[in-house]
Amino acid sequence: MWPSAVTAEPSRFPKPVRDAMQASGAAATCVAVQLDGEDWEAALFFQLAGAECKADRRAIKQSRGPLPVGMESDLLETDNGAVVVLRPELHARPGDPFVCEILLTPGDGGTHFEALKLLSRQPRLCWFFGDQSHWMLHSQQHPLEAAQHQEFDALLRDALKHDTMVRMSKRYDARAALGEIVKRYELRAGTRRGEYPPAGPPASRTPH
After folding, report:
1. Beta sheet of 136-143, edge-to-edge order
2. Which DSSP letter does residue 17 get?
3. What does each C-alpha distance from 20 to 67, 72, 138, 140, 143 come to in angstroms?
4. 159-174 residue pLDDT tens
5. With 90 as the cut, is the pLDDT of residue 202 above it?
């Protein structure tokens, strides 16, 4: 798990982030934002909603400092394209982590490509946790080291390499690739508590 430092907390998720999460039904997302007028950077946003997250919300509100966080990543290759899986986790309660998954298809460019490209070079990663209405419960940041930059860069390069081969056969379809992952692993929308496997086939899905 990475060391963390608390950041100043805005009152609510940025409106473009809220609108995108509401439109897609996402409970978590990784998206490029500008914070305090600074350079564009990829940040993680989590909506801790519902009864299943009640204990997490309580623990976050009672915290007096940075919370332990971590993230695994994986690349899943399908006949229609590559899907990058980010699996962030929050350890607000000992022994019972909050875990979710974010699926990205960088091969079609756009926001997914941009987010991974930024993660491969930006100096920090910010985490924002909100309630049902996206009001801020907690935020923190940690530095991204060279090894982490290299990992994100490798994920992006490998995904694009696979997608180049898929495009040669004219089969590239980002939506179909996501659909195949959902079908293959019986992923369900939203987040899920409990035990999770190591990096590899996803056990659950949070739409992005």
Report:
1. 5-6, 136-143, 124-130, 40-47, 28-34
2. H
3. 26, 24, 20, 22, 26
4. 999 999 999 999 999 9
5. no
